[in-house]
Specification:
Blueprint (H helix, E strand, L loop, with lengths): L2 E7 L7 H14 L4 E7 L11 H4 L3 E2 L5 E2 L2 H9 L8 E3 H13 L10 H14 L7 E6 L9 H14 L4 E8 L2 E2 L4 E2 L2 H12 L6 E6 L5 H11 L6 E5 L7 H7 L2 H9 L10 H12 L3 E8 L9 H13 L3 E8 L8 H4 L5 E4 L8 H13 L4 E4 L1 H13 L6 E3 L7 E6 L4 E2 L2 E2 L12 E9 L4 H6 L3 E8 L1 E3 L4 H6 L2 E6 L6 E6 L5 E4 L14 H12 L2
Parallel strand pairs: 1-6, 1-7, 2-5, 2-6, 7-10, 10-11, 12-13, 12-14, 14-15, 15-25, 16-17
Antiparallel strand pairs: 3-4, 8-9, 17-22, 18-19, 20-21, 20-23, 23-24, 24-25
Length: 538
Protein backbone atom coordinates (compact mmCIF):
# COMPACT_ATOMS: atom_id res chain seq x y z
CA UNK A 1 0.00 0.00 0.00
CA UNK A 2 1.17 3.51 -0.81
CA UNK A 3 2.10 5.98 1.93
CA UNK A 4 0.59 9.43 1.54
CA UNK A 5 2.39 12.71 2.23
CA UNK A 6 0.30 15.88 2.35
CA UNK A 7 2.02 19.25 1.92
CA UNK A 8 0.17 22.34 3.15
CA UNK A 9 1.27 25.96 3.35
CA UNK A 10 0.78 28.77 5.81
CA UNK A 11 1.36 32.50 6.45
CA UNK A 12 1.80 33.53 2.79
CA UNK A 13 1.55 31.92 -0.63
CA UNK A 14 4.43 31.24 -3.06
CA UNK A 15 6.71 29.85 -0.36
CA UNK A 16 7.74 26.90 -2.50
CA UNK A 17 5.41 24.00 -1.69
CA UNK A 18 5.80 22.74 -5.25
CA UNK A 19 9.59 22.91 -5.17
CA UNK A 20 9.67 21.29 -1.72
CA UNK A 21 7.40 18.47 -2.90
CA UNK A 22 9.46 17.96 -6.06
CA UNK A 23 12.76 17.91 -4.13
CA UNK A 24 11.41 15.39 -1.64
CA UNK A 25 10.19 13.24 -4.53
CA UNK A 26 13.69 13.19 -6.06
CA UNK A 27 15.30 12.28 -2.73
CA UNK A 28 12.88 9.41 -2.13
CA UNK A 29 13.32 8.19 -5.69
CA UNK A 30 17.07 8.34 -5.33
CA UNK A 31 16.71 6.12 -2.27
CA UNK A 32 14.98 3.53 -4.44
CA UNK A 33 11.27 4.26 -3.97
CA UNK A 34 8.52 4.82 -6.52
CA UNK A 35 6.89 8.24 -6.09
CA UNK A 36 3.82 10.00 -7.47
CA UNK A 37 3.13 13.75 -7.13
CA UNK A 38 -0.29 15.41 -7.17
CA UNK A 39 -1.65 18.94 -6.88
CA UNK A 40 -5.04 19.95 -5.49
CA UNK A 41 -5.95 23.51 -6.50
CA UNK A 42 -8.70 25.41 -4.64
CA UNK A 43 -9.89 27.74 -7.42
CA UNK A 44 -13.26 27.22 -9.11
CA UNK A 45 -11.97 27.07 -12.69
CA UNK A 46 -12.23 23.53 -14.04
CA UNK A 47 -8.59 23.85 -15.12
CA UNK A 48 -6.16 26.73 -15.72
CA UNK A 49 -6.50 26.47 -19.50
CA UNK A 50 -8.55 29.64 -19.98
CA UNK A 51 -6.93 31.67 -17.19
CA UNK A 52 -4.81 34.71 -18.00
CA UNK A 53 -1.07 34.29 -17.41
CA UNK A 54 -1.32 37.41 -15.26
CA UNK A 55 -3.69 35.48 -12.99
CA UNK A 56 -2.12 32.07 -12.99
CA UNK A 57 1.20 32.09 -14.76
CA UNK A 58 2.10 29.29 -17.14
CA UNK A 59 -0.31 26.53 -18.10
CA UNK A 60 1.64 23.27 -18.00
CA UNK A 61 0.61 20.46 -20.37
CA UNK A 62 1.06 16.74 -19.67
CA UNK A 63 1.68 13.90 -22.11
CA UNK A 64 -1.96 12.85 -21.96
CA UNK A 65 -3.24 16.35 -22.69
CA UNK A 66 -4.13 17.86 -19.32
CA UNK A 67 -3.82 21.62 -18.82
CA UNK A 68 -2.46 21.89 -15.31
CA UNK A 69 -0.88 24.07 -12.67
CA UNK A 70 2.74 25.08 -13.29
CA UNK A 71 3.84 23.19 -10.17
CA UNK A 72 3.47 19.96 -12.17
CA UNK A 73 6.34 21.28 -14.26
CA UNK A 74 8.47 21.41 -11.10
CA UNK A 75 7.38 17.88 -10.30
CA UNK A 76 8.46 16.57 -13.69
CA UNK A 77 11.72 18.49 -13.89
CA UNK A 78 12.94 17.35 -10.47
CA UNK A 79 11.52 13.84 -10.25
CA UNK A 80 11.77 12.83 -13.91
CA UNK A 81 8.23 11.40 -13.66
CA UNK A 82 5.77 12.39 -16.37
CA UNK A 83 2.58 13.75 -14.81
CA UNK A 84 -0.90 12.61 -15.85
CA UNK A 85 -4.40 14.09 -16.06
CA UNK A 86 -5.11 12.32 -12.81
CA UNK A 87 -2.40 14.28 -10.98
CA UNK A 88 -4.07 17.71 -10.88
CA UNK A 89 -7.59 18.63 -9.84
CA UNK A 90 -9.40 21.86 -8.99
CA UNK A 91 -12.40 22.74 -6.88
CA UNK A 92 -14.22 23.51 -10.14
CA UNK A 93 -13.55 20.01 -11.49
CA UNK A 94 -14.59 18.38 -8.21
CA UNK A 95 -17.89 20.26 -8.03
CA UNK A 96 -18.53 19.62 -11.74
CA UNK A 97 -18.07 15.87 -11.21
CA UNK A 98 -20.31 15.81 -8.15
CA UNK A 99 -23.07 17.87 -9.78
CA UNK A 100 -22.92 15.80 -12.96
CA UNK A 101 -23.43 12.67 -10.86
CA UNK A 102 -26.28 14.33 -8.95
CA UNK A 103 -28.05 15.31 -12.20
CA UNK A 104 -27.91 11.68 -13.33
CA UNK A 105 -29.47 10.51 -10.07
CA UNK A 106 -26.24 9.03 -8.75
CA UNK A 107 -26.99 10.03 -5.17
CA UNK A 108 -30.49 8.50 -5.18
CA UNK A 109 -32.26 11.71 -4.22
CA UNK A 110 -30.05 12.47 -1.21
CA UNK A 111 -29.12 16.04 -0.27
CA UNK A 112 -25.71 16.71 -1.81
CA UNK A 113 -23.35 18.38 0.68
CA UNK A 114 -19.71 19.42 1.01
CA UNK A 115 -19.37 16.69 3.62
CA UNK A 116 -19.43 13.88 2.61
CA UNK A 117 -19.90 14.24 -1.14
CA UNK A 118 -17.26 16.86 -2.02
CA UNK A 119 -14.74 15.48 0.48
CA UNK A 120 -15.38 11.94 -0.78
CA UNK A 121 -14.64 13.05 -4.35
CA UNK A 122 -11.38 14.63 -3.16
CA UNK A 123 -10.40 11.44 -1.37
CA UNK A 124 -11.18 9.41 -4.50
CA UNK A 125 -8.82 11.67 -6.45
CA UNK A 126 -6.03 11.26 -3.88
CA UNK A 127 -6.06 7.47 -3.85
CA UNK A 128 -6.86 6.84 -7.54
CA UNK A 129 -4.26 4.84 -9.49
CA UNK A 130 -1.76 4.56 -6.64
CA UNK A 131 -1.40 0.80 -6.25
CA UNK A 132 2.13 0.71 -7.69
CA UNK A 133 3.54 3.68 -5.73
CA UNK A 134 5.53 3.62 -2.50
CA UNK A 135 4.78 7.29 -1.81
CA UNK A 136 2.14 9.70 -3.07
CA UNK A 137 2.95 13.36 -2.37
CA UNK A 138 -0.10 15.64 -2.50
CA UNK A 139 0.34 19.40 -2.47
CA UNK A 140 -2.65 21.45 -1.32
CA UNK A 141 -2.81 24.80 -3.13
CA UNK A 142 -3.31 28.09 -1.30
CA UNK A 143 -2.68 28.50 2.42
CA UNK A 144 -4.33 27.14 5.53
CA UNK A 145 -7.07 29.53 6.59
CA UNK A 146 -8.28 30.29 3.06
CA UNK A 147 -11.99 29.60 2.73
CA UNK A 148 -11.39 27.94 -0.62
CA UNK A 149 -9.00 25.37 0.88
CA UNK A 150 -11.26 24.17 3.71
CA UNK A 151 -12.84 21.19 1.84
CA UNK A 152 -9.35 19.96 0.90
CA UNK A 153 -8.04 20.24 4.45
CA UNK A 154 -11.08 18.42 5.77
CA UNK A 155 -10.70 15.73 3.10
CA UNK A 156 -7.06 15.00 3.95
CA UNK A 157 -7.95 14.93 7.67
CA UNK A 158 -10.56 12.29 6.91
CA UNK A 159 -8.20 10.48 4.55
CA UNK A 160 -5.57 10.15 7.29
CA UNK A 161 -8.13 8.45 9.51
CA UNK A 162 -9.25 6.21 6.64
CA UNK A 163 -5.76 4.86 5.86
CA UNK A 164 -4.36 5.14 9.39
CA UNK A 165 -1.75 7.53 10.76
CA UNK A 166 1.03 5.07 9.99
CA UNK A 167 0.25 5.57 6.29
CA UNK A 168 -0.22 9.36 6.20
CA UNK A 169 2.16 12.19 7.01
CA UNK A 170 1.47 15.93 7.15
CA UNK A 171 4.14 18.47 6.16
CA UNK A 172 3.41 22.14 6.80
CA UNK A 173 5.49 24.80 5.05
CA UNK A 174 5.55 28.23 6.69
CA UNK A 175 7.38 31.52 6.58
CA UNK A 176 9.77 32.47 9.37
CA UNK A 177 10.36 36.14 8.59
CA UNK A 178 13.52 38.08 9.32
CA UNK A 179 13.07 41.72 10.32
CA UNK A 180 16.10 43.69 9.20
CA UNK A 181 15.25 46.78 11.22
CA UNK A 182 15.48 44.89 14.51
CA UNK A 183 17.75 42.09 13.26
CA UNK A 184 15.27 39.49 14.52
CA UNK A 185 13.80 36.22 13.30
CA UNK A 186 10.13 35.84 14.20
CA UNK A 187 8.47 32.48 14.89
CA UNK A 188 5.00 33.77 15.80
CA UNK A 189 3.58 33.56 12.21
CA UNK A 190 4.51 29.87 12.13
CA UNK A 191 2.94 29.29 15.55
CA UNK A 192 -0.32 30.91 14.43
CA UNK A 193 -0.35 29.03 11.13
CA UNK A 194 0.06 25.70 12.89
CA UNK A 195 -2.60 26.72 15.42
CA UNK A 196 -5.00 27.31 12.50
CA UNK A 197 -4.13 23.92 11.00
CA UNK A 198 -4.63 22.17 14.35
CA UNK A 199 -8.01 23.88 14.77
CA UNK A 200 -9.04 22.09 11.57
CA UNK A 201 -8.08 18.73 13.04
CA UNK A 202 -4.58 18.27 11.58
CA UNK A 203 -1.39 18.10 13.63
CA UNK A 204 1.63 18.55 11.34
CA UNK A 205 4.29 15.86 11.64
CA UNK A 206 7.01 17.92 9.93
CA UNK A 207 7.29 21.70 9.70
CA UNK A 208 9.42 23.21 6.93
CA UNK A 209 10.45 26.75 7.86
CA UNK A 210 11.23 29.05 4.95
CA UNK A 211 13.60 31.89 5.84
CA UNK A 212 16.05 34.20 4.12
CA UNK A 213 18.70 33.34 6.73
CA UNK A 214 19.59 30.43 9.00
CA UNK A 215 17.17 29.89 11.88
CA UNK A 216 19.01 29.62 15.25
CA UNK A 217 18.54 26.43 17.25
CA UNK A 218 16.74 28.28 20.05
CA UNK A 219 14.11 29.52 17.58
CA UNK A 220 13.65 26.02 16.15
CA UNK A 221 13.21 24.69 19.69
CA UNK A 222 10.57 27.34 20.28
CA UNK A 223 8.68 26.25 17.15
CA UNK A 224 9.02 22.63 18.28
CA UNK A 225 7.59 23.43 21.73
CA UNK A 226 4.66 25.59 20.69
CA UNK A 227 3.72 23.54 17.62
CA UNK A 228 4.07 20.12 19.26
CA UNK A 229 6.56 18.83 16.70
CA UNK A 230 9.78 16.96 17.43
CA UNK A 231 12.80 19.25 17.04
CA UNK A 232 14.25 16.82 14.45
CA UNK A 233 11.18 17.50 12.34
CA UNK A 234 11.51 21.28 12.35
CA UNK A 235 13.28 21.59 9.00
CA UNK A 236 14.75 24.89 7.89
CA UNK A 237 14.96 25.85 4.23
CA UNK A 238 17.10 28.91 3.76
CA UNK A 239 16.79 30.84 0.50
CA UNK A 240 19.14 29.32 -2.09
CA UNK A 241 20.91 31.02 -4.98
CA UNK A 242 19.41 28.61 -7.50
CA UNK A 243 16.45 26.23 -7.26
CA UNK A 244 18.75 23.38 -8.26
CA UNK A 245 20.28 23.58 -4.77
CA UNK A 246 16.93 22.63 -3.22
CA UNK A 247 17.38 18.80 -3.21
CA UNK A 248 20.85 19.26 -1.74
CA UNK A 249 19.56 21.64 0.94
CA UNK A 250 16.64 19.41 1.97
CA UNK A 251 18.88 16.35 2.15
CA UNK A 252 21.35 18.28 4.33
CA UNK A 253 18.46 19.11 6.68
CA UNK A 254 17.45 15.39 6.74
CA UNK A 255 13.95 15.89 5.33
CA UNK A 256 13.97 12.58 3.44
CA UNK A 257 15.53 10.79 6.43
CA UNK A 258 12.81 12.04 8.77
CA UNK A 259 10.06 11.04 6.33
CA UNK A 260 11.40 7.48 6.22
CA UNK A 261 11.82 7.43 9.99
CA UNK A 262 8.19 8.50 10.42
CA UNK A 263 7.00 5.60 8.24
CA UNK A 264 9.56 3.23 9.83
CA UNK A 265 11.03 2.39 6.44
CA UNK A 266 14.70 1.73 5.72
CA UNK A 267 16.33 3.36 2.71
CA UNK A 268 16.96 1.04 -0.22
CA UNK A 269 19.84 3.11 -1.66
CA UNK A 270 22.07 6.03 -0.79
CA UNK A 271 20.98 9.41 -2.12
CA UNK A 272 22.88 10.47 -5.25
CA UNK A 273 23.26 14.24 -5.22
CA UNK A 274 26.19 14.41 -7.62
CA UNK A 275 24.07 15.41 -10.66
CA UNK A 276 22.58 18.35 -8.72
CA UNK A 277 25.97 19.41 -7.40
CA UNK A 278 27.33 19.37 -10.94
CA UNK A 279 24.61 21.54 -12.47
CA UNK A 280 24.57 23.86 -9.45
CA UNK A 281 28.28 24.45 -9.94
CA UNK A 282 27.71 25.32 -13.60
CA UNK A 283 24.81 27.67 -12.87
CA UNK A 284 26.56 29.50 -10.02
CA UNK A 285 30.17 29.57 -11.14
CA UNK A 286 30.28 29.53 -14.95
CA UNK A 287 31.74 32.84 -16.11
CA UNK A 288 30.86 32.61 -19.80
CA UNK A 289 27.42 33.93 -20.67
CA UNK A 290 25.26 34.84 -23.66
CA UNK A 291 22.18 37.00 -24.11
CA UNK A 292 18.96 35.42 -25.37
CA UNK A 293 16.01 37.68 -26.23
CA UNK A 294 12.51 36.44 -25.36
CA UNK A 295 9.92 38.53 -27.18
CA UNK A 296 6.36 38.14 -25.90
CA UNK A 297 3.34 39.75 -24.25
CA UNK A 298 3.93 38.49 -20.73
CA UNK A 299 7.67 38.97 -20.31
CA UNK A 300 7.22 41.09 -17.18
CA UNK A 301 5.49 38.21 -15.44
CA UNK A 302 8.06 35.77 -14.09
CA UNK A 303 5.85 32.67 -14.07
CA UNK A 304 4.27 33.18 -17.52
CA UNK A 305 7.14 31.38 -19.29
CA UNK A 306 8.38 29.29 -16.35
CA UNK A 307 9.11 26.06 -18.28
CA UNK A 308 10.67 28.06 -21.11
CA UNK A 309 13.02 29.91 -18.76
CA UNK A 310 14.03 26.61 -17.19
CA UNK A 311 14.57 24.91 -20.56
CA UNK A 312 16.87 27.72 -21.70
CA UNK A 313 18.82 27.35 -18.46
CA UNK A 314 19.05 23.61 -19.13
CA UNK A 315 20.45 24.35 -22.59
CA UNK A 316 22.99 26.63 -20.94
CA UNK A 317 23.99 23.88 -18.50
CA UNK A 318 24.53 21.50 -21.42
CA UNK A 319 26.82 24.08 -23.06
CA UNK A 320 28.51 25.23 -19.84
CA UNK A 321 27.03 28.69 -20.23
CA UNK A 322 25.07 31.15 -18.15
CA UNK A 323 21.98 32.42 -19.97
CA UNK A 324 21.03 36.06 -19.58
CA UNK A 325 17.40 36.45 -20.58
CA UNK A 326 16.59 39.75 -22.28
CA UNK A 327 12.82 40.14 -21.95
CA UNK A 328 11.25 42.36 -24.60
CA UNK A 329 7.58 43.35 -24.57
CA UNK A 330 6.30 42.69 -28.09
CA UNK A 331 3.40 45.15 -27.65
CA UNK A 332 5.75 48.07 -27.25
CA UNK A 333 8.38 46.91 -29.75
CA UNK A 334 8.67 49.41 -32.59
CA UNK A 335 10.39 48.62 -35.89
CA UNK A 336 12.77 51.53 -35.40
CA UNK A 337 13.87 50.08 -32.03
CA UNK A 338 14.55 46.50 -33.06
CA UNK A 339 18.18 46.96 -34.09
CA UNK A 340 18.99 48.66 -30.81
CA UNK A 341 16.90 46.27 -28.69
CA UNK A 342 18.58 43.21 -30.19
CA UNK A 343 22.08 44.62 -30.09
CA UNK A 344 24.37 42.18 -28.29
CA UNK A 345 21.80 39.39 -28.44
CA UNK A 346 23.07 35.94 -29.51
CA UNK A 347 19.66 34.37 -30.07
CA UNK A 348 16.00 35.34 -30.49
CA UNK A 349 13.09 33.28 -29.18
CA UNK A 350 9.38 33.87 -29.82
CA UNK A 351 7.33 31.82 -27.34
CA UNK A 352 3.79 30.53 -27.41
CA UNK A 353 0.84 32.88 -27.07
CA UNK A 354 -2.50 33.83 -28.54
CA UNK A 355 -4.34 36.84 -29.95
CA UNK A 356 -3.34 39.67 -32.27
CA UNK A 357 -1.96 41.96 -29.58
CA UNK A 358 1.83 42.34 -29.93
CA UNK A 359 2.10 40.29 -33.14
CA UNK A 360 3.62 42.96 -35.38
CA UNK A 361 6.55 43.42 -33.01
CA UNK A 362 7.17 39.68 -33.05
CA UNK A 363 7.00 39.54 -36.86
CA UNK A 364 9.51 42.37 -37.26
CA UNK A 365 11.90 40.76 -34.76
CA UNK A 366 11.73 37.49 -36.72
CA UNK A 367 12.52 39.38 -39.92
CA UNK A 368 15.56 40.88 -38.22
CA UNK A 369 16.77 37.46 -37.01
CA UNK A 370 16.26 35.93 -40.45
CA UNK A 371 18.04 38.68 -42.37
CA UNK A 372 20.86 39.25 -39.87
CA UNK A 373 21.54 35.51 -39.44
CA UNK A 374 20.81 35.58 -35.71
CA UNK A 375 19.86 32.13 -34.32
CA UNK A 376 16.08 32.01 -34.07
CA UNK A 377 13.73 29.68 -32.20
CA UNK A 378 9.94 29.90 -32.62
CA UNK A 379 7.60 27.92 -30.38
CA UNK A 380 3.91 27.30 -31.20
CA UNK A 381 2.60 30.84 -31.85
CA UNK A 382 6.23 31.74 -32.60
CA UNK A 383 6.22 29.29 -35.52
CA UNK A 384 2.99 30.80 -36.86
CA UNK A 385 4.50 34.29 -36.70
CA UNK A 386 7.60 33.03 -38.55
CA UNK A 387 5.33 31.66 -41.29
CA UNK A 388 3.48 34.97 -41.60
CA UNK A 389 6.75 36.93 -41.70
CA UNK A 390 8.18 34.74 -44.47
CA UNK A 391 4.93 34.83 -46.44
CA UNK A 392 4.81 38.63 -46.35
CA UNK A 393 8.44 39.34 -47.09
CA UNK A 394 9.60 36.41 -49.23
CA UNK A 395 6.43 35.09 -50.89
CA UNK A 396 5.09 38.62 -51.38
CA UNK A 397 1.75 37.78 -49.72
CA UNK A 398 1.61 41.23 -48.14
CA UNK A 399 -1.68 40.64 -46.33
CA UNK A 400 -0.71 37.21 -44.94
CA UNK A 401 -2.35 36.70 -41.57
CA UNK A 402 -4.06 34.24 -39.23
CA UNK A 403 -7.81 33.70 -39.03
CA UNK A 404 -7.35 33.99 -35.27
CA UNK A 405 -6.99 37.75 -35.83
CA UNK A 406 -10.39 38.10 -37.53
CA UNK A 407 -11.55 38.34 -41.13
CA UNK A 408 -9.58 40.09 -43.86
CA UNK A 409 -6.23 39.38 -45.43
CA UNK A 410 -4.98 36.01 -46.63
CA UNK A 411 -5.15 33.53 -43.74
CA UNK A 412 -2.26 31.11 -43.98
CA UNK A 413 -2.84 30.17 -40.35
CA UNK A 414 -6.26 28.86 -39.32
CA UNK A 415 -8.19 26.52 -37.06
CA UNK A 416 -7.08 22.94 -37.48
CA UNK A 417 -10.46 22.06 -39.03
CA UNK A 418 -10.64 25.15 -41.20
CA UNK A 419 -8.97 23.95 -44.39
CA UNK A 420 -10.41 22.41 -47.52
CA UNK A 421 -10.94 18.68 -47.20
CA UNK A 422 -12.26 16.60 -50.07
CA UNK A 423 -13.20 19.79 -51.90
CA UNK A 424 -15.27 21.16 -49.03
CA UNK A 425 -14.50 24.00 -46.63
CA UNK A 426 -14.83 22.67 -43.13
CA UNK A 427 -15.00 25.28 -40.38
CA UNK A 428 -13.98 24.55 -36.84
CA UNK A 429 -15.38 26.21 -33.74
CA UNK A 430 -13.69 28.54 -31.33
CA UNK A 431 -16.67 29.20 -29.07
CA UNK A 432 -15.94 26.76 -26.27
CA UNK A 433 -12.47 27.67 -25.08
CA UNK A 434 -12.18 24.90 -22.54
CA UNK A 435 -10.62 21.68 -23.73
CA UNK A 436 -11.08 22.26 -27.48
CA UNK A 437 -7.44 22.46 -28.41
CA UNK A 438 -4.94 19.97 -29.70
CA UNK A 439 -3.47 18.95 -26.39
CA UNK A 440 -0.81 16.52 -25.28
CA UNK A 441 1.64 14.19 -26.98
CA UNK A 442 1.55 13.85 -30.78
CA UNK A 443 3.90 12.20 -33.24
CA UNK A 444 5.82 13.97 -35.99
CA UNK A 445 7.93 12.55 -38.82
CA UNK A 446 11.27 14.25 -39.49
CA UNK A 447 12.62 15.03 -42.94
CA UNK A 448 15.79 13.27 -44.05
CA UNK A 449 18.99 15.37 -44.17
CA UNK A 450 17.34 18.20 -42.22
CA UNK A 451 18.76 20.14 -39.29
CA UNK A 452 15.93 18.91 -37.07
CA UNK A 453 16.79 15.31 -37.94
CA UNK A 454 20.40 15.91 -36.89
CA UNK A 455 19.27 17.48 -33.61
CA UNK A 456 16.89 14.69 -32.61
CA UNK A 457 18.93 11.86 -34.17
CA UNK A 458 15.75 9.92 -34.96
CA UNK A 459 13.16 9.56 -37.73
CA UNK A 460 10.11 10.41 -35.62
CA UNK A 461 9.41 12.23 -32.36
CA UNK A 462 6.61 12.80 -29.88
CA UNK A 463 6.11 16.24 -28.34
CA UNK A 464 3.42 18.05 -26.35
CA UNK A 465 1.02 20.41 -28.09
CA UNK A 466 -1.31 23.21 -26.91
CA UNK A 467 -2.94 25.11 -29.77
CA UNK A 468 -6.07 25.56 -31.89
CA UNK A 469 -4.45 27.00 -35.00
CA UNK A 470 -2.16 25.42 -37.58
CA UNK A 471 -0.20 26.38 -40.68
CA UNK A 472 -2.11 25.76 -43.92
CA UNK A 473 -0.34 22.80 -45.55
CA UNK A 474 -1.46 23.89 -49.03
CA UNK A 475 1.24 26.62 -48.99
CA UNK A 476 4.02 24.08 -48.35
CA UNK A 477 5.42 23.97 -51.91
CA UNK A 478 5.55 27.77 -52.16
CA UNK A 479 7.48 28.05 -48.94
CA UNK A 480 9.94 25.30 -49.79
CA UNK A 481 10.68 26.74 -53.24
CA UNK A 482 11.80 29.90 -51.43
CA UNK A 483 13.99 28.18 -48.85
CA UNK A 484 11.69 27.54 -45.87
CA UNK A 485 11.61 23.79 -45.31
CA UNK A 486 8.74 21.92 -43.67
CA UNK A 487 11.06 19.49 -41.90
CA UNK A 488 8.51 17.91 -39.57
CA UNK A 489 4.99 16.76 -40.43
CA UNK A 490 2.22 14.82 -38.72
CA UNK A 491 2.16 11.11 -39.72
CA UNK A 492 -0.65 11.79 -42.22
CA UNK A 493 1.38 14.67 -43.78
CA UNK A 494 -1.48 17.13 -43.17
CA UNK A 495 -0.20 19.19 -40.24
CA UNK A 496 3.11 21.12 -40.36
CA UNK A 497 4.97 20.56 -37.10
CA UNK A 498 8.45 21.98 -37.76
CA UNK A 499 9.98 24.49 -40.15
CA UNK A 500 13.60 25.44 -40.72
CA UNK A 501 15.38 27.88 -42.96
CA UNK A 502 18.05 27.04 -45.52
CA UNK A 503 21.27 29.04 -45.53
CA UNK A 504 20.88 30.23 -41.97
CA UNK A 505 23.05 29.30 -38.96
CA UNK A 506 20.03 28.18 -36.91
CA UNK A 507 16.44 29.06 -37.76
CA UNK A 508 13.95 26.53 -36.37
CA UNK A 509 10.31 26.87 -35.36
CA UNK A 510 8.02 24.19 -33.96
CA UNK A 511 4.26 23.94 -33.45
CA UNK A 512 4.66 22.06 -30.17
CA UNK A 513 6.11 23.00 -26.76
CA UNK A 514 9.48 21.28 -26.24
CA UNK A 515 10.05 23.23 -23.01
CA UNK A 516 7.54 20.99 -21.21
CA UNK A 517 9.82 17.97 -21.64
CA UNK A 518 13.15 19.58 -20.75
CA UNK A 519 14.72 18.69 -17.42
CA UNK A 520 17.86 19.94 -15.66
CA UNK A 521 19.33 16.43 -15.61
CA UNK A 522 18.17 15.78 -19.21
CA UNK A 523 18.12 19.02 -21.27
CA UNK A 524 15.89 19.01 -24.35
CA UNK A 525 17.99 18.61 -27.54
CA UNK A 526 16.31 21.59 -29.25
CA UNK A 527 17.32 23.97 -26.46
CA UNK A 528 20.81 22.50 -26.26
CA UNK A 529 21.24 22.96 -30.01
CA UNK A 530 19.76 26.48 -29.99
CA UNK A 531 22.08 27.61 -27.20
CA UNK A 532 25.06 26.01 -28.94
CA UNK A 533 24.24 27.97 -32.11
CA UNK A 534 23.80 31.16 -30.09
CA UNK A 535 27.17 30.49 -28.41
CA UNK A 536 28.83 30.37 -31.84
CA UNK A 537 27.02 33.46 -33.14
CA UNK A 538 29.26 36.46 -33.87
Amino acid sequence: MARFIFVTGGVVSSLGKGLSSASLAYLLQSRGFKVRLRKLDPYLNVDPGTMSPFQHGEVFVTNDGAETDLDLGHYERFSGISAKKSDNITTGKIYSDVLRKERKGGYLGKTVQVIPHITDRIKDFIKNDTSKEDFVICEIGGIVGDIESLPFVEAIRQFSNDVGKKNALFIHLTLVPYLRASDEIKTKPTQHSVKELRSLGIQPDIIICRSERAIPLEHRKKISLFCNVDIKNVIQTVDVKTIYEAPISFNRENLDKQVLEYFKIKSLNKVNLNPWKKITKIVLHTKKSINIAIIGKYVDLKDAYKSLDEALTHGGIQNNLKINLIRIDSENLKVSEIKNKLKGVSGVLIPGGFGKRGTEGKIEAIKYAREKKVPFFGICFGMQMAIIEFARNKLNIKNATSSEFGSGGTPIIGLITEWNRDGKLIKGTDKDLGGTMRLGLYEAKLKDNSLIRKIYKTQSIEERHRHRYEVNISYKDQFEKNGLIFSGLSPDNKLPEIIELKNHPWFVAVQFHPEFRSRPLAPHPLFSSFIKAAKNHK
